Amino acid sequence: MQTQSSNAKTTETTIARLEHFDVLIVGAGLSGIGAGYRLQTECPGKTYAILESRNAMGGTWDLFRYPGIRSDSDMYTLGFAFRPWREKKSIADGASIVNYIRETASEYGIDQKIRYAHTVTQASWSSPNAEWTVHATGPEGKPLQFTCNFLYMCSGYYDYAQGYMPGWPQMDRYRGRIVHPQHWPEDLDVAGQRIVVIGSGATAVTLVPALARTAAHVTMLQRSPSYIVARPSEDPIAKWMNGHLPESLAGKLLRWKNVLLGTYFYNFARKKPERTKKMIFKYVCKFLGPEYDAAKHFTPRYNPWDQRLCLIPDADLFVAIRAGKASIATDEIETFTERGLHLKSGEELPADIIVTATGLNIKLLGGTRMTVDGANINPVQSLSYKGMMYSDIPNFASAFGYTNASWTLKSDLTAQYMCRLLNYMQSRDYAYCTPRRRDPSIAEEPAITLNSGYLQRSNDLLPKQGSKKPWRLHQNYARDLLALKLGRINDGTMEFTRLERKQRSA
Questions:
Q1: For the whole prediction, is pTM greater than 0.85?
Q2: Which of 251, 302, 411, 435 has a CB 3.0–4.6 Å from the CB of 385, allowing a cystine?
Q3: pLDDT band at residue 457, thresholds of 50, 70 and 90?
Q4: Is 506's pLDDT higher than 80?
Q5: What pLDDT, on the 0 to 100 scale, is given for residue 443?
């Protein structure tokens, strides 16, 4: 009898820990904090919580600690529309971005909604109950469960635990230190060291000038060049507007200025790739001078915006090269040696430290396992609806930013659309909604058309888009703004379902 009483008590304790929310947000980075703001302002009657796997908010900007970490787009579009960026630098360092996120969350009370050290592992949908049961691992490995009516994933699309490492011949021979930027050691002293940074993407062009400030020399070893564009870290127009206009107005004008300029340049580059190549190359030559072999080190094999362009503030990479503190080697690794790298050209590249800026591993939705009414589902096999929801998965969305513009532009539109959708369902007493792929003529296409290495490696790990709207992605903020803020919610593709009213079980 005592055992039965004890078991009953344990069960009651477990049930007491099962919390219910109208919306659960997974991830406390830019997207998650933005979604929290939209929910509490546009759906004030809805309850929500944010589950964050790490012990701090900030997402990518708190995770990455490598030297020089900064935004890869301007903060007037990467920042929140409801709380404009007011700092001097439009290309901001990681610490400033984290502070901005934390200050925003604190100002609006969003930080009180965050549950830290909560890693979501599984989500199970029940149509009869019109709710998700979300399984998570809490602090100290404690298993936890939550239920919610709508699940919104803001966990990004890459693996937070491990970066991509290609693996080269005889890496174990090397006697120096090998470091991946995603896990930068706090005790690493680069002063006076010879460093080789392997890679040519955004992380590499950020690291090289930052390391070159104290290192003996830094070499960026690239298999092939990337397009690199320099721009001032401070925007003079923004400086004037912030000094003369009300904060809200200045924020809106700066956001639209940069959206329109970015859209114009992207469209120009896609329509006139040869002219764009010449413009970018001319700019590189102007900085590095006629003696530098710019043709070898700055002539990519692809057209502009086949991959994302690399942005360098105040031409810092070019400045480091001209000062002799950094250099570029365009070659391939044949093997690691005890003292560095042996290249296929025959050149020996000595190094005290080798940094593998070789990219990320894709991990959709944080690797969460999902079931719908008891059946295992894989979102990768679904079709992406409006770039945010998934075919045949009810009351579920994820934040996924633009590839040709700031991430936050699209994630904020997604959060606002989610609020429109929730309000629409509440006003009509719908319990859940499900995107349905009804048109058999819709062909599947890759959701991301960039040919960046980390995306090409992971095509099978990302959902597809469709050949027609609303399954087709535009990668265009202005078009998405009209479609998501003004377009019909009940568009013939979304299926809405009502349930008989019943009191929720205690």
A1: yes
A2: 435
A3: low
A4: no
A5: 83
Residues 197/79/24/383 CA torsion (nearest 10 deg): -70
Count the alpha carbons within 13 Å of 90 in the hemisphere toward its beta carbon.
24
Which domains are assigned to the chain? 15-160+362-497 (3.50.50.60), 171-237+269-356 (3.50.50.60)
Mean pLDDT for the stretch of residues 108-129: 96
Look at residues 95, 93, 94, 102 and name the one whose alpha carbon lies nearest to residue 56.
Answer: 102
Question: 288-306 burial, b if ≥16 CB within 10 A, otherwise e?
Answer: beeebebeebbbbeeebbb
**Range list of H helices, 337-467:** 407-427, 453-456
Looking at residue 466, its pLDDT comes to 86
Indicate the residue type of 311.
L
At 148, which amino acid appears? C
Secondary structure (3-state) at 172: helix
Contacts of 93 (CB under 8 A, 6+ apart): 68, 69, 70
The residue to which tokens 């265009």 are assigned: 476
Percent of the chain having pLDDT more than 90? 73
Q: What pLDDT score does 460 carry? A: 66
Query: Is the CB of residue 200 less than 8 Å from the CB of residue 223?
Result: yes
Largest Cα–Cα separation, the chain: 90
Query: What is the spatial distance between Cα 209 and Cα 69, in angstroms, rounded to a whole number?
Result: 11
DSSP 291-360: TS-HHHHS--SS-BTTBPPEEEETTHHHHHHHTTSEEEEE--EEEE-SSEEEETTS-EEE-SEEEE----
| Continuous segment of H or E residues that includes residue 286 | helix 273-288
CA–chain centroid gap for 235, Å, is: 24
Neighbours of 42 (CB within 10 A): 15
Full DSSP string of 66-134 = STT-B-SS-HHHHSBTTB---SSBSS-BHHHHHHHHHHHHHHTTGGGGEETT-EEEEEEEETTTTEEEE
CA distance 175 to 2: 63
Token reading at 29: 């980075």
How far apart are the C-alpha atoms of 436 and 383, rounded to whole Å? 9
pLDDT tens, 295-322? 999 999 999 988 889 999 999 999 999 9
Return the pLDDT at 464: 82
